[in-house]
């Protein structure tokens, strides 16, 4: 693919429709990682309306394109992501949480029929305790997944499989109920 192909990929990503709880927004992409880049941010809500609505996860998806590739990428394209979500403090204490988080990433990509290579990343558990005037706040815990992989695509439309896998990762990390294949969620109106 070339620059025109990259432009087609970004057009496909702009047209991508996620489930209603995941709000996607185009954001400025990092300029120093590759010659061409495109980025989306995501906010995941609990799906409730009005004052009961709450953000439960967020993330960022970046598509990089370097003509000729980079050695560590094993290709010309690279998907880079960061996702974070609140977790139960007891879950945060589980020593297997990082492995579970990494498996969520790999499984959501595989289940979305993505072909990829050179996956790498980190999974971080974050625990926060409040003190002083903030001591009334309850302890907080989060999981963060920072990862990248090289998509293997025979045609440009396959980037949508990677976007679907990434949105499924967001849903998984946020604890959203899966949407059965062939079923649509009831639209509550997009922001």
Outline of the structure:
With 191 residues, the chain is α+β, with helices and mostly antiparallel strands. Helices cover 25% and strands 36% of the residues.
Listing every helix as H and every strand as E from the N terminus to the C terminus, the arrangement reads HEEEEHHEEH
Name the helicity range.
Answer: 25-40%
Question: What is the average per-residue confidence, as pLDDT, rounded to a whole number?
Answer: 86
* Class from helix and strand fractions: alpha+beta
How many separate domains? 1
Largest sheet: 6 strands, antiparallel
Q: How many DSSP-defined strands?
A: 6
Strand order of the largest sheet: 1-2-3-4-6-5
Count every helix, treating DSSP H or I runs of 4 or more residues as helices. Answer: 4
- DSSP strand content: 35-45%
The low-confidence runs, each spanning 5 or more residues with pLDDT under 50, are: 187-191
